[in-house]
From TrEMBL:
Pfam families: Hydrolase_6, Hydrolase_like. InterPro entries: HAD-like_sf (IPR036412), HAD-SF_hydro_IIA (IPR006357), HAD_sf (IPR023214). GO terms for molecular function: phosphatase activity. PANTHER family: 4-NITROPHENYLPHOSPHATASE-RELATED (PTHR19288), OS08G0542600 PROTEIN (PTHR19288:SF90). This is Uncharacterized protein AlNc14C95G5835. GO terms for cellular component: chloroplast. It comes from Albugo laibachii Nc14.
Length: 318
């Protein structure tokens, strides 16, 4: 592991950079200090892909970044957990009916079919619908704020799991136990366990719910980091869109703030990684910085996860 002052120190070593969004570039509401400048300067020198665990489709990424001030026109592509799941469902059309845990935006939930950023977009109700578990082919967890057993918004059940992460949440346990009784596969379109929102708010994500189902003995299929498949999609996109006159493979590095998702996924995929310490691990690593020269905290956390990033950077900066 090597501390960096800024990403400019290693730009020349790589042909392509894969960036995480949340925790690296922004918190969902506003861009981080120095991140816009760093992104735009990096994009002038090297091709950039976004790899995000958002449950929304890849087309959602560039407009979001542009809204926050990033020059997203320079992206060569985006891969998301939602996009990977959408593609998988397109190839597995025998799975047509699901019971759903989604975000707290369920008032719009079944405008989802008209929302081109949604996993439901492009599927008529005959091919992808929300039903009671007794009628479902699978469980779909794309959020942690609302449970739906029907496409009728008036019948939704709002839950506080996103705020509490309570493993004893009755509504979530009922959903999972019913699914397990029916031996249903659970699709998780965002494997994140937690995320950091605006003003330091901690959000408990659908990945925690999927882990609970696994602990019950249920089968889960994850889309997104740290799964190798999404990194392979990025690598293939890079090969298609980045000219490579060398006989050697493209040199690719991934920038992320989650040891378990970003850094582990990069490690599994055989690519280098740049770990941003000011993201979801910031409290654990409060005393770790290049200036402190104290690597003990960082070594301890990395050892716990069995992961070693190639480089360490406190914030995404040039």
């Amino acid at each position: 592991m090597q501390w960096l002052d800024g990403i400019s120190e290693i730009v020349a070593k790589y042909d392509v950079f894969i960036l995480d969004q949340y925790g690296v570039l922004h918190n969902g509401v506003e861009a981080f200090d120095a991140a816009i400048t760093c992104f735009n300067r990096l994009a002038e020198k090297k091709p950039i892909l976004i790899l995000s665990n958002t449950s929304r489709r890849a087309v959602s990424v560039a407009p979001k970044l542009a809204h926050l001030g990033f020059d997203s026109d320079k992206l060569i592509g985006s891969v998301t957990g939602g996009e990977e799941a959408w593609r998988w469902l397109q190839s597995n059309k025998h799975l047509r009916k699901c019971s759903l845990i989604t975000h707290r935006f369920a008032e719009q939930a079944f405008d989802k079919r008209k929302d081109f950023e949604s996993i439901f977009y492009g599927f008529p109700s005959s091919q992808l619908d929300v039903v009671p578990i007794s009628q479902a082919d699978f469980l779909l967890v794309e959020g942690s704020g609302t449970i739906m057993y029907s496409p009728e918004v008036s019948e939704k059940t709002e839950i506080d799991f996103i705020d509490t992460g309570d493993p004893n949440c009755n509504e979530v346990l009922s959903y999972l136990k019913q699914g397990k009784d029916e031996n249903l596969l659970l699709l998780c379109t965002n494997p994140d366990l937690i995320s950091c929102g605006a003003e330091g708010r901690i959000c408990h994500m659908g990945g925690q719910i999927a882990k609970m189902y696994e602990e019950m003995g249920g089968k889960v299929l994850y889309f997104g980091k740290p799964e190798k498949a999404c990194f392979e999609t990025c690598i293939q996109l890079a090969k298609q869109r980045v000219p490579n006159t060398s006989s050697k493979p493209l040199r690719i590095a991934h920038v992320g703030d989650s040891l378990y998702h970003d850094i582990l996924g990069a490690q599994r995929s055989g690519i280098d990684s740049i770990f941003i310490t000011s993201g979801i691990h910031r409290k654990e690593l409060a005393q770790s910085s290049k200036a402190s020269s104290d690597m003990s905290q960082l070594e301890s956390v990395c050892c716990r996860f069995g992961i070693r990033p190639t480089y360490i950077l406190q914030h995404f900066r040039w």
